[in-house]
Amino acid sequence: MHELSLADGILKTVLQAAEKEGATKIKSIKIEMGEILLVNAEQLTFCFDVISKDTIAEGAELDITYLKPRVLCNKCRKEFEIVSDNDLPILSMICECGSNDLTVLSGREFNIKSMKIEED
Ligand SMILES: [Zn+2]
Questions:
Q1: Each residue of 78-93: pLDDT tens digit?
Q2: 107 CA → ligand 1 middle, Å
Q3: d(C-alpha 79, C-alpha 68), whole Å
Q4: CA-CA 20 to 30 A from 113: which of 18, 48, 64, 71?
Q5: Ligand 1 centroid from CA 101, angstroms
Q6: What domains lie within the chain, and their CATH numbers?
Q7: pTM for this one?
Q8: Could you tell me the distance, in angstroms and rounded to a whole number, from the CA of residue 26 to the centre of ligand 1?
Q9: Per-residue 3-state assignment (H helix, E strand, C coil) for 45-107
């Protein structure tokens, strides 16, 4: 499952970082991710809650920001940002010129930006 492996990656990364900082508790984690990844935030949070049990990240809040994907139309060479409020923006994308021959320039990012911790 997509969300579970992402949650696992987040947990490993923040636990490592927290250890370096001498943190006793991780309170929240700020994450940026591209919409094209089609990650379900609720599922990601659920998975994270489950696997972070009995670690210092237990109960940490995931603060997720979605990044809008940018695409390039291969027909008219127009570059634009996909603006959408539904779940599957890229799959049904068509350029203004009517072409669906699009190259994704960005929107696959997955970054852990920062985290809030408690220290001794
Ligand atoms: Zn076009």
A1: 998 876 655 545 556 7
A2: 19
A3: 13
A4: 71
A5: 8
A6: 2-119 (3.30.2320.80)
A7: 0.78
A8: 46
A9: HHHHHHHCCCCCCCCCEEEEEEECCEEEECCCCCEEECCCCCCCCHHHCCCCCCCCCEEEEEC
